[in-house]
Amino acid sequence: MYRDQMATRQKRYYIKLLEKGINASEVAIDCYNRVHNPYRTESTLIFATNGWELLAKAILIKNKKSIMDRDRTISAEVALHKLYCLKYIDSNQSGCVQQIISLRNAASHDVLPEVPQEITQHLLYFSSKFFRDLVQVHFPTHEKKLRRDYLALSFSDLTTYADKVQKVVSKIKRSESDRQLAWLLDRGIRFDGNSYFSINQFVKQYKKKSKVLPHLGISDFIKTSDMVRLVPVEAPKNFTADIVLRKGKKNDPSLPVIIKKTDVESDYPYLTKELAAKIGKTPNFTSKLINHLKIKGDYKYHQSVRSSATSEVNRYSSSALESLITFLSKQPNFNPYSKK
Q: Which of 21, 99, 277, 325 could make an SS bond with 54 (beta carbons 3.0 to 4.6 A apart)?
């Protein structure tokens, strides 16, 4: 009987931690989106960390793991590290949240260096996403307590977390503020479960190196993380809105986002039948040639336009026509019906 009462009490405790953690995580988003908030970055980091600490402790208690360190509960960074060691979160998720915690620890005890919006938005976006995912896995009946949508407006020409971190690191040897910010991010990623390394230890990593970034833990984080950019897209009347992602260069981990306004009728003037007439082939031949050249799905050559609730019309650009003509001029005997 006593054991059952203890179990019930523990359950009530971790559910309370979970519910307060959910509240804190949403207050963090509210702090960031609030129009008048002179303590915007700091308050966002404080409440986001609070939310994660309470969620981590709720998960640990539910799974019968201790959250005590002598006579007090463990810190947020230690609680997160325990989740990582237990494989409840992966290294990318841990790295993201540990950066938030590191920045929050600095903000709570000192003046936080200026954090570019791209870095804040990246960490908050993925932190919120990972938070929701973890609640869904460990407390599926409580996931519905989290709101599905949070409106965020941005009128700045922002880039990405990776781009901004590279710029911060490029100034690390001559700017104290950038050096401190890079250290705060890097120490979060490299937290070993016991203590942070000092800024002097951080500087030693790159002091005698010509290139700084490859010698920082944050370099691996960039390489293994998805990037996010908040892009408000206005679609004027009779325009479709397309966001195009292209793969960056090998040595450029930043994420380019291209916004292209398209007048489908003008930019993609040809139907398959019209392409066939232009190249002197049957529509079936042309369709197979298009598939062979992998033209369909490439925005440079193709757009699919819905014509009814269940069907679509494929339209092609002048570049697509040129590609077909060029290919056939080089391979006039091409047979799309061949099994080879």
A: 21
